[in-house]
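Feature request, filed as a ticket because there's no other form

It would be nice if the structure record came with a short human-readable summary line next to the tokens. Right now we just get the raw output. Example of a typical job, pasted below so the devs can see what we mean:
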Amino acid sequence: MRLLEKAPAKINLSLDVLHKRPDGFHEVKMIMTTIDLADRIELTERNDGQIHIISHNRYVPDDNRNLAYQAASLLKQRFKVDRGVSISITKMIPVAAGLAGGSSDAAATLRGLNKLWKLGLTLDELAVVGAEIGSDVSFCVYGGTALATGRGEIVEHLPAPPHSWIVLAKPTIGVSTAEVYNNLDLTKVSHPDVDGMIKAIQDNDYDRMTGLVGNVLESVTLKLYPEVAHIKDQMKKFGADAVLMSGSGPTVFGIVQYDSRMHRIYNGLRGFCDQVFAVRVLGERNTLD
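Raw output as currently delivered:
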């Protein structure tokens, strides 16, 4: 039996870091939403009990370092499944980009194996399993738009944000999330108005939403990686209504309302950035249908 699942990318409309916790993680408060840029996960049942990763992207590990592998392994052990699975990952989301590609692959694997192995778990139950794999996996299980707190695993559903285009640009560099957090000085950052962003989304207020985007991690990444700051400046010049780095970077996204401006920004960025995408906000939650 074979089954297909989409694994959409996410962006952070607002990302605040409150403090470092005793367990070493950072307490966060952030608003995430899924966008129409997705990896494709193909699950094929195996009778030998093995978990096998198939990927043609050299940056995607094909062993137990892969989050989709970890998702399958955890479900298999937790629910004593004797069958195996081949997991074919077709990457469309840039790797190590601040877009939760690996986490979304893991979440799609959880949703897909729930069907393939007939486990009968709810999204809430799958999200609890996902939290053991990574901080963003719980959100990616649900998809849609949400406030994420704790280390990112406590997820509260929000309405879809106002309809808009998202133009993404990823420079050809990698960013170490650990390095960004290690260099974060919370006494010197400007904290975004996360509660104000929630209200703007609830009111479907595009202008207020674009006026309130913010990410405390930019205070570190833009200094360490000038390429990211350059893309952000260019996107503003091309006319995006709001420009922000997603996650710890290096991907920068611009929000625009109209097709004509989206095309202008997209074409302008293609001149000096290889990985540029123009996609819609999805914003709606996953189902188990």
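Something like this underneath would help us a lot:
The CA atoms of residues 124 and 142 lie 8 Å apart.
The chain has ten helices and eleven strands.
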